[in-house]
Each structure stands twice: as structure tokens, then as C-alpha cells.
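Study both lines:
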Amino acid sequence: MKKQKFSAGKAPLYEAVLCLCEKDRVRFHMPGHGGAAAEELFSSAKFDLTELEGLDDLHSPCGAIAEAEELLAKAYGCERAYLFTTGSTGCMHAALALARTRGEILYTGEMHKSFFGGLRLLGLSAEYVPEERLEERLKRGAGSLFFTSPDYFGKTLGGEEKVRLCGKYGVLSVADSAHGAHFPFSKLLPKSLTRIADVCFVSMHKTMDVFGGGAALCANGGVAYECLLMRGMVHTTSPSYLTLASADYARALWSERGEEFYAEIAEYVNALELPRGYQREESDDLSRLVINCGGSAADALEKLNKKGIYCEAAVGDKLVCIVTRHNAARLKALAEALATITPKPLEKERGFSLEMADTRGKKAAFCPIGDCEGKIAGADMGLYPPGVPNIMRGEIIDKKAARFIKENASRLFGLAYGRVVVLE
């Protein structure tokens, strides 16, 4: 693509995207289309449309979108399926809006930042329940249970059992399955919770040929039509038709060729030989390649980037790669590059046990990273990926937490233009 020059000045983001894409890159990160989504169908801006005649309306579907969502529900084995162009974050907020009408909200395991942000936006609170006490707590009654399955590392974390327990005790089950959008399309993959959970949402753009933000909320039982109303409350009135159309395209393609895709992916993954010092971690999802680097995965990630190989994430000593039909054949290139890399030693992980402060009457301010120790966090902060908060809004930033922020500033969500959001 020829770079456009501007007499009035620079277009830094546009230029950065062009610079990254101008060379051959090996992409093991989302979105799952790997730069080749929908062949040539969506390569032109002419497909970026709005609610014109024949294109239906996402907020009141009765034509093409309604038909696409009926086919989507059939593919995911649920009663109703609703498209989103605002990612699983939009689905999460719709699910929380529904849960608000049901009573007490519980959650177990690690949750994405969108869960905690949604609680605050809607003025809600939620009770954390340890896994080992889950059934005991559900017996006492609640409105809903939120949980994640699969997680960022492709582990399903007993999601089916959680849904079963919720059904047993009459609690609404809400599964964040953002990383499991591809599960229904091959017998080689885990069973999808879209078929059994009351509410389950998936990020189709993470692993399929779908543009960024493409997601689906799947609903079963008595909440199906309520979820439609909740989508109307939280979703933009200007959805991306590029994203909607790519989601419909991917659903049709995966329904037809999913078994073929994952049989081929399995062959490449099983044939992968990692160099000495690297080990493959167990994963329930064959297409979620998790590599133990024997050292700092962030250091390995940085060195791979310089070689033009981009992975999904680095968490501790684990390097995460999303393997798709577009990049499976290039796993050998990943292994060859890793053979030339010796990661730095991994520093011992520092867990936080921070004191919560009284935030009443306090307002947000911004302070330099070096001055944040002792101040009250004004926003959730954590590594992205995976998007799970390490420091919560309202917690007092101690010495360890301040050091964590300084060392990971380039990878943290929750900062504002390089400064820490605090409450004063």
C-alpha cells in the first residue's frame, strides 16, 4: 500500500499501521484472520456501510441481521445469538445489566477488567466466591454467577460443572467464553458453553476471520429476549457493518470447514518441536499454544518482535500464541526464532495484598509513575493481555505495587498517557 503524505502534518497512527504491515510478519495474535480476513471481500472501504435499505438495523433486526443471527444461534447451539461489534466487553456489560434485575451477583476465578468496570458503571457490587466454596455458597441462593471458561491459556476450568451447579440451585449462569468462539466448529476442540449456559459470550475476532470487535452473546432459557433489550441499551447505534458482515462470513465458513481447519492445525501443532529450554504447557484448546520459556516470556516476546514474529501475549514465563488456519504453517519459523533467543531470568512474581481506602468524596487526579507510592489507585491496573486487574481502584499503592507499575508501564491498562490515575 502506498503511503499517503500530508502537507498539514503527520498521521501517526495511520503511519504506524502501514509501517508494521509493509513487511512480511508472522502473526500469532488476535484478530484471528491474520490479515487475510474473508479473502478479498472486505478489502475495500466501500463495504463500510450503515443501516441502508436491505442491510437491516442491529437495534431492531428483522431482515438480513435477524437471519444472520438465527444462523449464528444454530451454529452455537443456543436459543438466541446476538451480534456485537464492541467486543466481549459490550457483551459483558449487557450481561451485567441483565444480572442487575436478578439480585445478588457472584463471581469466581479471575475475571476480565470489563467485569469490574461494568459493575462500577452500573452501580453494582459483586461477591467473590473461592472455587472450593462455590456449591456451598450457591446453596444459599443468589441471582447470578459470573465466571471465565476458557481462560487466556486455553483451559476450560470446569466450566460445564459451574453451569450444572447454577442450574441445580436456580442461579443464572454467565460464562465469559471470549476465547472459545471457535469451539463449536470441531470435535477436536472442547465443548462450547454456548449450548448450556444461560448467558455465554464469545469474541469471534480472537480466533476466526472476523474484524476487531466482532463478538456474539448467546442466550438460553427465559433470558433470551431480555438479552436483546440489554444489547440495545449498551451497544453503539453505529455498529460496524464490516465487522458484522465478517462475523456472518466466518460463521458460514467455519460451519462448513471447521473440522478441516482444526485437523490441519492439529497436524502442525503436534509436529512442532520446540528448542531446548522451551516446553509446551498443557491446554484444553489445541489451537492455544502456550510455551514455557524457562525465563521471562516478556523478554522473549520483545526479541521475537524484532524478528518480525508477533505472539499474543507474555505472562510470567508463558508465551501465548493463537494458532489459526492462516499461521499454523509458520510454527516452524517461530521455533527457529526461539532457538536463537535466550530469555532473561524471570524475577519472582510479586503478589499484592493491598489495603482498601475510603474513596468517598475523592476525585481523580494524575500523578507521575515515580510518585504513585502511598496514593490511592483511581483505576484498575493490570497487564494486558490478559486484562485481569492486579491493582484495584480504591487500593493503596504500596512499595511493591509502585515498583510493579514502574516496571510494566508499557504493558499496563489503567494508566492515562503515562501517568497513574489516583484519588485525592
Observations:
- The chain has a mean pLDDT of 90.
- The chain has twelve helices and 19 strands.
- The longest strand covers residues 80-84.
